[in-house]
Amino acid sequence: QVQLVESGGGLVQVGGSLRLSCAASGRTFSSYAMGWFRQAPGKEREFVANINRSGGYTYYGDSVKGRFTISRDNDENAVYLQMTSLKPDDTAVYYCAAQASGRSTQPREYAYWGQGTQVTVSS
After folding, report:
1. Are 31 and 40 spatial neighbours (Cβ–Cβ below 8 Å)?
2. Residue spans of beta strands (DSSP E) within 1-123
3. Tens digit of pLDDT for each residue in 56-94?
4. Is the C-alpha dihedral spanning 77, 98, 14, 65 positive or negative?
5. Rounded distance between C-alpha atoms, residue 96 and residue 111, angstroms
């Protein structure tokens, strides 16, 4: 099992940047692929980005490609989401999630979730 805690959310102006962090407990963090998802009010949970176990492969949703960067530090048991050029449509609760196998874009494939961190982009 792995427990996940997100941090780093907040209020930012359009065009600004934020860096989200997800701290994982447990000694098996490096055995999980990790993903970031987001959910805005009244909308379904949306795939943002994922990263494989070693950190050598990443994949992004179309809406964030070129603006967001996912990374991980297996020594620190953490995964990060660097967000730049933020837009009002990026406003959502952001969740990190862990997947034991594969590297899916579907929320149902992820077994472990954090509690989420709110990101609000104001215009």
Report:
1. no
2. 4-7, 10-13, 18-24, 33-39, 46-51, 58-60, 68-73, 78-83, 92-99, 112-113, 117-122
3. 999 999 999 999 999 999 999 999 999 999 999 999 999
4. positive
5. 11
